[in-house]
Design goal:
CATH class of the largest domain: Alpha Beta
Number of strands: 9
Mean pLDDT: 96
Number of domains: 2
Low-confidence stretches: none
Strand content: 15-25%
Structural class: alpha/beta
Shape: elongated
Distance between the termini: 64 Å
Length: about 290
């Protein structure tokens, strides 16, 4: 199309999606069609499925104006999830703002592992779980939702992140089983011990951060992304101190960068963790450390 959606012609859902998809493709926006659908569904206040059921529905002037504004912002690599205020994770929707990271599918590997492990392992049926660096609360809330007997302690150094996490917990009906605490890494646990110590900490090194895409680098919170000169500042502390907070038998589960596999395995061995293993994520990349404390 030669003109933008501000034109006076009849802009249907079908036409808006086609134009926007092409527009996003030219600007190198990730998942252009999906992004266009998310924005239009948000503006119209309908589920994405309804876009296809009413493909020839004409947009009003106000709808076109609101949509055009969001498209312009997304074209500058502002994350679509922030623009619509929510993101999917583990078949649920979570509120997200620039105070928290946007959920990634790789993190679902953590949730899947714990669900399977606690169901098949004696002594883990009603676990106490600590989710360190909880952010928007996706891990803590997903686990509380899936493991009815679980109690979760979720910590984060950011008060703004915890506000979002508490809202998400309320939305998904698990507020009564998650204790949100503000503090640095393991400090809020004090002397408590848990069955699962889990974390998706900041792990991007200073060198790798220079290569991070603008939709992440310019918009997502650096506090939740950057892990120091080698990316291991927080991972190193979590591994070294994990045995102090894990009930025997128990497990530590930490998301890492795939480039950190070898050194993380060495850190686990030095800390006296047993049966250390790195799980592959949905893309087949080594992304999650799992180790036992026995």
């Amino acid at each position: 199309m030669s003109s933008s959606p501000s034109a006076s012609d009849r802009w249907t859902t079908r036409k808006l999606l086609a134009w926007t998809t092409e527009h996003f493709e030219k600007r190198g926006i990730d998942s252009p069609r999906h992004s266009a659908e998310m924005l239009l569904a948000h503006v119209l206040g309908v589920p994405r499925l309804k876009l296809f059921m009413e493909a020839d529905r004409p947009a009003s002037d106000l709808e076109r104006a609101a949509f055009r504004d969001l498209v312009e912002r997304a074209s500058k690599h502002e994350p679509v999830d922030y623009l619509v205020g929510q993101a999917p994770f583990f078949s649920m929707m979570f509120k997200v703002t620039p105070a928290v990271l946007i959920p990634r599918p790789s993190t679902e590997t953590i949730v899947e592992h714990i669900i399977q492990h606690c169901r098949r392992t004696p002594g883990f049926r009603a676990p106490v779980i600590a989710d360190i660096c909880t952010g928007s609360g996706i891990i803590a809330i997903s686990l509380a939702k899936q493991i009815q007997e679980a109690q979760v302690v979720a910590t984060d150094i950011s008060g703004d992140a915890l506000t979002i996490a508490r809202e998400n917990a309320k939305t998904h009906g698990v507020t009564d089983r998650i204790d949100f605490r503000q503090g640095d890494l393991l400090e809020p646990l004090k002397f408590e011990r848990v069955k699962y110590l889990v974390s998706n900490p900041p792990y991007i090194s200073d060198a790798e951060f220079e290569q991070v895409l603008p939709n992440v680098k310019d918009y997502e919170p650096h506090l939740a992304l950057r892990g120091g000169s080698d990316g291991l500042k927080f991972i190193r502390t979590l591994i070294a101190q994990s045995k102090q907070h894990i009930e025997v038998p128990g497990q530590v589960i930490i998301e890492i960068a795939d480039s950190q596999k070898a050194v993380v395995m060495e850190l686990a061995q030095q800390a006296g963790l047993e049966n250390a293993n790195i799980l592959n994520d949905h893309e087949g990349l080594p992304r999650v450390l799992v180790a036992d404390v026995t």
